[in-house]
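We emphasize that the prediction below concerns an isolated chain of 343 residues; any contacts that depend on oligomerization or on bound cofactors are therefore not represented. The input was used exactly as deposited, without trimming of termini.
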Amino acid sequence: MKHSRCVNTFLNRLGAFGLLGALCGCANLEPDMSKSAPDAATPVGFLVRTNYQGWADSILVSNGRVEAIIVPAIGRVMQFRQVGQTEGPFWENESLFGQEPNPASTNWLNFGGDKTWPAPQGEWGFITPREWPPPAGFDAVPVEATVDGWKVKLVSPVDPHYGIRTIREISLAVDAPVMTIVTTYEKVEGDAVMASVWVITQLKEPLVACARVSHTSIYREGFQLMSEESPPSLRVQDGILRIRRDPKAPHKVGMDVGSLLWVGETEMLRIDSSRLPQQTYPDRGASAEIYTNPDPLRYVELEVLGPVKKMVPGTRIQRRSTYTLLPRTELDPELDIRKELLR
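Result of the prediction step, given as a token string:
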């Protein structure tokens, strides 16, 4: 990741001397350009096209506090991290760096990062010729990227079986460690289908992944098992569900909530996507899911889902997700969890 470190160092130095505007393709987020040298504490934003992990024409956008790395070549947001860091919480599959997606492949190319698939997954085999890998138009094709100010838009080709194109608009808050992704499905052609916007974020192995249980949960215990066996680490205490990655077997739980929390050694990532009342959700009513992957790929997934809708040509459905990077402030992660989820 040497290229990312060089980009950050160079741009930070430029910002410190008020010369960021001299760099082609960059812009200052501060509207007041009267100061010749901004204060050292003032966040300096920029947007550049770069080669990321072997993928040309990737986009790095920063607000001076956090930065997102978007890779149109594989249709994903590959990283979200604090400025000055060379790594972030998003999991990236190093064995696939620089490779192109293959829509005809019968093996799933698991690149990592943040992406979107249509739910329910159980419908894939009826709508497309295969139950797995995921529908190629959602997962295995490059997408078109355009930049409008500080917003990056990714538009996919139309999936030949669903007749749907995906549109993802990625933006950063002006002065907060927050990324927003608005994911839209647009039905362009073909027969009517039932679909839900499903957003999957693959993250490095955490200390724990957790969520606050809904007080009015549709599930007897506040969650539902979606894997054959219960995760050995699963526990619910004081209204918070906690789960750690099991190196021996995959596990998944579903919940009827709108927030999930990833807890690492030094930081936390919160993903929020509101659950709408009186709507039909896929996977027996789940609007949020936590998946843990066994060895050798050490990652977890925080997943959010929208209501299921009937889509005919001209129909659009949409889901907004916000990603907030939070510093760990307590020695005991349990204290950080409680402060964040029980406030």
